[in-house]
Each structure stands twice: as C-alpha cells, then as structure tokens.
Amino acid sequence: MNLKNEIAAKSVVELLSPAKNIECGMAAINHGADAVYIGASQFSARAAAGNSVSDIEKLARYAHQYRAKVYVALNTILTDAQLTDAEKLIHQIYEAGADALIVQDMGILKMNLPPIALHASTQTDNRTMEKVKFLQDAGFSRVVLARELSLKQIAEISSQTNVELEAFVHGALCVSYSGQCYISESMTGRSANRGQCAQFCRLPYNLTDADGNVLVRNKHLLSLKDLDLSDYLPELIDAGVMSFKIEGRLKDIDYVKNITSYYRKKLDAAIEQKAGYSRTSSGKTTFFFEPNPEKSFRRNATDYFLNGRHNAIIQPETPKSLGEPIGKVLNVKRNAIELENGHLLNNGDGLCFINKKGELEGFRLNTVQTLGNQKTAFCYPDTMPVIESGTLIYRNQDQAFEKILNGKTADRRVGVKMNFAETANGFKLSITSEENETATLAVEYEKQLASKPENVEPNIRQQFSKLGNSIYELQQLEIKLENTWFFPASVLSEWRRQAIEKLDKVRANNYVRELPRKAVHSDFPIKQLTYLGNVTNKNAEAFYREHGVESIQPGFEIKHQQGVPLMFTKHCIKYEMGWCPREGYKEKVNEPFFLTHKGQKFELRFDCKKCQMEVIG
Question: What contacts 24+ positions apart, CB below 8 Å, involve 212-218?
C-alpha cells in the first residue's frame, strides 16, 4: 500500500497553526491545533520569529501529550558558509523532539541528516504535478502547495501523487509565487528567500502608461486581501488536502487563539460531513468564547484563485487591517458621530474608515452613548475626524473581545476510562486513554468495612474524577468491589495521582515520530535552471546535477541579474482594471505600464498565455 492509499485508509485531516514563540504554540495546541509550525533560531523564512532549541523541545513535549505535532521551519536558502551550522542545528532540532523539518533549500538533502521527516516549503514553488511528484520522489513526506492553485488543480495533483498535501487556508498572501520574488533583495539586499522581506508588495504605487500618464494614483496595487477558505474545507478535503494551514508566524497570541478556534470548529464540522474521517491528534477542546476572524488582523478576505480567477482580490486603499464593518455614519455633530449599529461598540474601541483622500484613517472612542432601544449610537472620538454622512465605519480593535481573549478561552482534555477493582491483597486502578493506552496501579492495602456504606461509591467517583491538574477528563468509571470498603479521600487522591503519572509515562514512551520518506531517483522536470532555481550553495548544485539538470545559474542572492523579472504573480493589474483581452477588452492600451513609488520604477509585463504578470526592475 503506498502512502496516498495509507492516508485515504486512515482518512485523517490536520489543523496546522502558526507559532511565533512557545507561548503561541501552546495556545494553538490548547485551542485545538493538531500541529504547529515554528521557526528555528536561524534559517527561517520569518527571521523575526526565531526560537531556541530549548523552547522547541518544551513545545514538542507539550504538544505530544495530545498527539499533536511540531514542525520546525528551516526554509531559507543557504550559502556555503552556512551549511555546517544548518546541519548542526537540524540535529539539535531532531534531538529536541520535532516531528518534521520544513525546508526550501535542496542542499539540505545532501547533508548527513537525522531520521526526521521533511516537508517541502511553499517556498519551493509547488504549483505543478511534475514538481510535486519530483519532491515526493526526492524524499519529502509532505508538500506545501502554492496558494494560487484552484480546487481542480489540487485534485489533479492529488490524483497523480502519493504524498501528503498541505494547503494554506487563512492569513496573509504573498502576491508573488512563493520563492519567486526578488524585488526586496534587488532593492534593499533583504532577501525574501532568507526571511528578510521588505514587503514592497504592500507599498502604494502610481500606475503609469508608456507616455507617463498616471492611470491610477497612490494605490496599493500589489497588496492582496487576506486568504479565508473557511467555507471550502469540505471541498478541500475532497480535493486531497490533508493539512489545513493557518498563516501567521509573526502574529500575536490573540490571533492564534481566535483563528485556531475558528478553524477548529469549522474543520470539525467538515469532518462530521465526511464518514470515516478523523483528526490527527487527541483530546477535545472546550471553548469559552465565540471565535470571529473579523476581530483579528486581516485585510478583508478573499478565496484568491481557489474557485478560479476573479477581480477584487486586492485591497488598494490600505495594506493594514480594516477589521469588521460596523455601519454607516448617519449624522456628524461637533464632537460626536451618530452611527448605525452603534450598540455593538464599547468605550475604548478602535474605529477606522477610508477618508476622502482614499486613505485609511483611524480613531479611538472615548465613550459610546446608545439611543434608547435603538441600534444607533452617538460615538465620541478621542480626536474628531473629518468625516461625512454615509461613510462606512470599521472596527479594528474590539475592547470587549480583547478582554475575553486575555482570559482563559479554551480547555483541551484527553478522555480516559477508569477501572477500579479489588485484588487479593488490595486494589488496582487502571486508566485507559482515548488512544487505548493503559496504565495500571496495583497497591497492597488493608481492607476495612465502611461505617457508612452509602458513601463509598460517591467518594470514589468524586476523588477519581478530580483531574483538573492533568490533561485528562474522566469519561467512564467502572467500580468492581466485593464489599463496601472504607477509603480515606487522601488515599484515593494519591492512587489517582500515581496512576495518572504512570499513564503519562506510558503515553510518552509510546509516542513515535514519523520516519523520513525513502527517496527514489527521478529527474528534475527542468534541464536548465536559471536564477529562479534559487541555487546558492554547492550542496544544492550537486543535488540538481544528480537529478539530471544540465545547466545551473547561481541564485539571485549570489549574483543579481539585470533586467529580469523580480516578481512573478498570478495577480494581474490589467485584469483587475478590466483591461484583459482574454476577457473581451478590445480597446488599445498604451503599454508598457509602470509602477512608480518615490523614484523607484518597475515595468509590468503580461504573459497572457500563462495568465501571469511579471514585475521588472
């Protein structure tokens, strides 16, 4: 049975959450994540979110209690000088208990690696069946798909490969194909492929034509909305996605709590629709709040290309979070704003709107005065903005919601069954976890009849159900006694503690990490690698030559190329503006078009055959 058949037989799906640090990682686990991904101290595609090996070890130990996994991102391209340090770090990560390594640089496959599973980062530009098939053969257990793929494309890849497929379902979108953006490196020396992206895609630009005429002024023409595929989880399961990934290794703990909880509920609902499907981890999470993705950072929402190409995938006014729409301004007073749905607001909330200049403007509410039983309210800002009736108001900071998130918002418990029985010389307590792992505590104990027989069983049940200091929750207790013996509460409590301790050890010893996939030789689908191959070290070059590549250019970070595309994107400004000839636009446009920002100028080229836009330095 091959891997894809094994996955189908198990029918498991995974919710994968981001962890900026150990606190975020533990919060993700507590709020229902089946796995978390976290950056190492070096060589992570989010250089600002590195973590020590010690913290990774603590997080892995915590996650494994719930059979949740920890994946460590070491997904930058490496120089020759970094290879030795990277190999040493990988061994340390493995010894720390990590379940898999997320990598971009193929040079890592030429290292002396520990037996750790490898996941191909989305930075390896995984958008074709041929590429995914090659990575599968090269020894990757999982491939993180390009965000630009449609449901149909994902299903086609799944049908012709037998590797786990992971897909982003929520969070920020890079406008360029991942791993194929060099604009930050070219302009600032800060490489996106080395975790230091300067985010040129979030800047405001003027769009000009060949004669310098300004067609669009000061808009964020490359700044995409944030991804939200929460309504398409069943379809993604059908398409072959096994792991559902939330973006956000730079996001704070409130984001992790809220978004993980939201997708846990959505994915559980999707699993219920699919007979035979289950989670990859253990434990049931109880939530003490209602998650809402509009209350966490996001630039509106888009399904991107999942259901085919459509416009309105960018947020041209601002790259910042708008938050949730509240309502329109009804009236403007000297120091107050009358607002629809004002009853939803709280003192101290942060509001924002798009002003007459087309820019995002924000203010904080000092007080909110509701008008009787009406939904409208008078809002008194800390600084009165220039605003008109009819303006749509958003809330990007909800004081009441933030207060909830600061408290205890979830509790995750592994279900256990207990059996308490009498032996010849005493008693034994057996505990079986929901994974069917059992620990038994047998004790010798002098038996004395209870003076109040009616209290014996209630006392046993009360003491054995006190599992609040553990990760467990009692689901069933079977008591088999020949007589109503007397048990001091302190004795029962100690037996429970010892039995739980034994179960912890059994489960820890039984945890087995996935072994790496065995590689089989296959040729790389391309014979000539340009700078787009991101080959920046001798190991990577040797790897590709072993797999049939005949010509290899150095990566852009090693040797800057002049006049070449710095960004490849499926987002098309001509399409967004309604000028796409494939959509029937017949008027002549004065190309080439350019994006300009503070003296910087980039030419736009349109490859209509590939339905792709290129940004040229």
Answer: 213/590, 215/577, 215/593, 216/577, 218/358
- CB-CB neighbours of 258 under 10 Å: 25
Distance between start and end Cα atoms, the chain: 49
Contacts of residue 535, Cβ cutoff 8 Å, sequence gap at least 6: 106, 529, 541, 544, 552, 553, 554, 555
The H-or-E segment that residue 79 falls in is none
Q: How far apart are CA 41 and CA 22, in angstroms?
A: 12
Task: For the chain, list the domains and their CATH numbers.
Answer: 3-173+225-281+289-295 (3.20.20.70), 322-405 (2.40.10.170), 414-510 (no CATH)
How many residues comprise the chain? 617
**Is residue 8 pLDDT above 70, yes or no?**
no
The pLDDT of residue 2: 44
Closest alpha carbon to 30 in 73, 59, 72 = 59
Q: Which of 502, 498, 500, 492 is nearest to 445 (CA)?
A: 492
Taking every pair of C-alpha atoms in the chain, what is the biggest distance, in angstroms?
101
Backbone angles phi, psi at 604, to 5 degrees: -105, 130
Q: Each residue of 544-560: pLDDT tens digit?
A: 999 999 999 999 999 99
Q: What residues contact residue 203 under an 8 Å CB cut-off, 6+ apart?
A: 220, 222, 223, 319, 597
Residue that is written with structure tokens 């029937």 in the block: 584
Tell me the two tokens of residue 55: 């913290």
> What pTM does this model have?
0.95
User: How many whole angstroms separate alpha carbon 292 and alpha carbon 567?
Assistant: 34
The dihedral formed by the CA atoms of 155, 156, 159 and 161, expressed in degrees to the nearest 10: -110
